[in-house]
Amino acid sequence: SNVLTQPPSVSVAPGQTASITCGGSNIASKILHWYQQRPGQAPVLVIFDDSDRPPGIPERFSGSNSGNMATLTISRVEAGDEADYYCQVWDTDTDFWVFGGGTKLTVL
Amino acid sequence: QVQLQESGPGLVTASETLSLTCSVSGVSISSYYWSWVRQPAGKGLEWIGRISVDGITNFSPSLTTRVTMSVDTSKNQVSLKLRAVTAADTAVYYCAKYGNVKGGFDLWGQGTLVTVSS
C-alpha cells in the first residue's frame, strides 16, 4: 500500500518561496492532489492532478510530481498561507485514498 | 451554490454506533462520489471510505469491519455508520465530494466533532 511522507514542518519568511514535499514509491505514476487546511477550518483543494489549480486558487500555488517525490511550491508567501498542507493519492492497487501526514507551514 | 453539511450526535457512548449524515444542496448526489474523512484533534487527515450512488463502496482497511455507508437520493444525503466505537474514534468528521480520481476532493463540509465517552 502507499505511504506518503511529508516533512512535519516548513518555515519561510514572507515574500519567499516555500516548498513542501510528498514522498512515495513511484509517486509520479499516481494522480496527486494537495489540500490546505487553516486552523479550525475544513481542508481546501489547492492543487489537483499534480499541477492544476482549482478556480480561485492564486497562481502563486504550483505543483510538480516526478520520480518518488511530489512538491507543492508556494511563491511570494503571505501570512495567510500559514496552514497545514496535505498531499493525497488514489491507490490503484487497493482502491482507496491515502493522505500524507501533513506539513505545517509557518510564515516567520 | 453547492454546500455540504454534516450532522449527527456530538457525543457517542463507547461500544455503540456513530451515525452521521451529510446533507448536500446545490447538486444531485447522483453525479459524484462521496467520501468521509476524519481528523482527531491535533492530528492529520484519515480517509474512512467512499460511496457512489450506484453502490460502489471502498473503505479504509483499518476501518472496513466497522463501517457502513449509504446514500438516500430522495433526501440528497449520504450517511456514515461506525460501529463499536472507542475513544480512538473521537475526531472531527468531514464529508467531501469528488467527480473522479483526477479531480480531487473539490468540496468539503465544515466538519462535525464527535466525542466518544466511556
Rg over C-alpha atoms of chain A, rounded to the nearest angstrom: 13 Å
Largest sheet of chain A: 6 strands, mixed
For the termini of chain A, the CA-CA separation is 36 Å
Order of helices and strands of chain A: EEEEEEEEE
Q: Biggest interface, and residues per chain?
A: A-B, 25 and 24 residues
Question: How much of the sequence of chain A is in beta strands?
Answer: over 45%
Average residue pLDDT of chain B: 95
Number of helices of chain A: 0
Structure in words:
The complex is a heterodimer of chains A (108) and B (118). Chain A has strands at 9-12, 18-23, 32-37, 44-47, 61-66, 69-74, 83-91, 96-99, 103-107. Chain A is globular and about 40 Å long. Chain A is built from no helices and nine strands. In chain A, the strands form two sheets. In chain A, strands 1, 3, 4, 7, 8 and 9 form a six-stranded mixed sheet that branches. In chain A, strands 2-6-5 form a three-stranded antiparallel sheet, with no helix packed on it. With 118 residues, chain B is mainly β. Helices cover 0% and strands 52% of the residues of chain B. Chain B is built from no helices and eleven strands. Chain B has strands at 3-7, 11-13, 18-25, 33-39, 46-52, 57-59, 67-72, 77-82, 91-98, 107-108, 112-117. Chain B is globular and about 40 Å long. The N and C termini of chain B lie far apart (40 Å). In chain B, 36% of the residues are buried. The mean pLDDT of chain B is 95. Classes of the chains: A mainly beta (108), B mainly beta (118). The A-B interface holds A 1, 31, 33, 35, 37, 42-45, 48-49, 54, 84, 86, 88, 90, 94-102 and B 35, 37, 44-47, 49-50, 58-61, 94, 96, 101-106, 108-111.
